[in-house]
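Blinded run. Sample ID left blank on purpose so nobody reads anything into the name before looking at the predicted structure. Input follows.
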Amino acid sequence: METVKAFFIQGLKSVGRQLVQLSSKPATEWLMLFVCLLPFVLISVFNHPTDDDFLDAVLARQQGFWKSMGFYYQHWTGRYTSSFLYGLVYKSATLDSWLLALRLAPVILLISLTGAGYFAIGGLGLPISASMKWRFALYGVLLYLCGIPLVASALYWFNGAAVYTSGLILGLLLAGLIGRCIHATSSADRVIWGILAAINGALLVGTNELMIVVTLIVVTVWLLGTTGPKKHWPLVVLIAASIGAIITVAAPGNFARADTVLRTMPLWYQIGRTGAKSIYLTISHIADWGSNGLLLSATVLFVWWVRPRYPSAYTGKWLRGAAVGGMVMVIMAMPTLWITNDVPARVWNVVYLLFLLCWFAGVLAAISRRPLPASWRVTGRNGRRLRVLWLVLIVLGYNNAVHSAYIDVAFKAQRYNRAQDQRYALLQQLQRMGRHDVEVQALLPHEYQYPGTIFLHELELFPNDIANEGMAAYFGLDSVRIKSLPARIRRHMRE
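Blinded prediction complete.
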């Protein structure tokens, strides 16, 4: 018996040593990063249109690519870049081709977000390897997905993703272009980066109103901080972005959309109310994000990873960047509050990415001013082991986006996908039978059975909801309504 016990203990120690050695290898860290982001790719296979996707698809089919962009500008929004992306996806000839586009879009957005992060890090001009830039970008995307209020609106609801996630991607690209323009050693390189930055700035302000605020402030700060012959390039970018902003804001559709809100209260009251509410909501969100254990542990790992040993000349730049970002965060919610009197989750998705950038800029400023004591430093191998352990805990942890995405892929998404396909087939059959006003069952009996990673919301009981109207128009019906909403009960863990 003692021999068996000793053999068992020896085996556990041997396995433990092998796991510790394995966790220190670079390939293990890359593998765990891949594992953490994999469910967001896998679940794209089960993505379906939701909310106003159907209505926009009907518009694209009826009016065509360019005319639909004109309709948006005249009647709904001046976001010309987002309207262009709408046309690329929504003008699909068949339901199957449209579903394919909606399932490829989240993967493309995820890859683009990572690539834009890599490009932005490269624009900082820091002496770090390409491998470290990619890892920083992947960790950044992972922290973003685990911290935003609603992953579905960031990647899988295309109408929202085309507006806000595209803005984040172009924003990171603009940061990388500005950095390269600043650090360019030749006038030819400066011309190339400056022209690309001007084009990017014009496209960026056409994604959403939040990006107008961010772009104009960032480029203005760049202009004020630049002297000598380099000063004309930030001016060119500012002019290009300002022209795009005027085109976006002056759209008749914006005034039609905001008219009902602005008519109900005096202008001075609207300004004060919007400003106060924006400040309160932003501060409360920052307090919540800053106390998140996942971010705090990632910050400690980041400090150990960077391991500064001497004061840095970049300290003032990091502090100024964090201060400007903090100011922008406070006013980012104002455009949406002004137009709709609400700040939806998709807006806080954007604010959260800016919060992450400001957070780590502040951390870099702090540790650059006061280098780590020798007792705080860890070796590169031990730091990698800790990062691998952190990634493992993210996969296994119950209350985060990665774990939820794996649960959705394994247990919820396939059933949801079958229910959606059955609903499409039923609506097509009823339309062929001459039925015009249709009632359908909820996709799934209970609310907890829906895959929250990709699902936004169900049809409503009344047929004039935007999702109901869009689905009815897409399938050639007069109206569609749901018979009863899914039960809002929370299943016990042991069940």
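Unblinding after everyone has recorded impressions. The longest strand covers residues 437-440.
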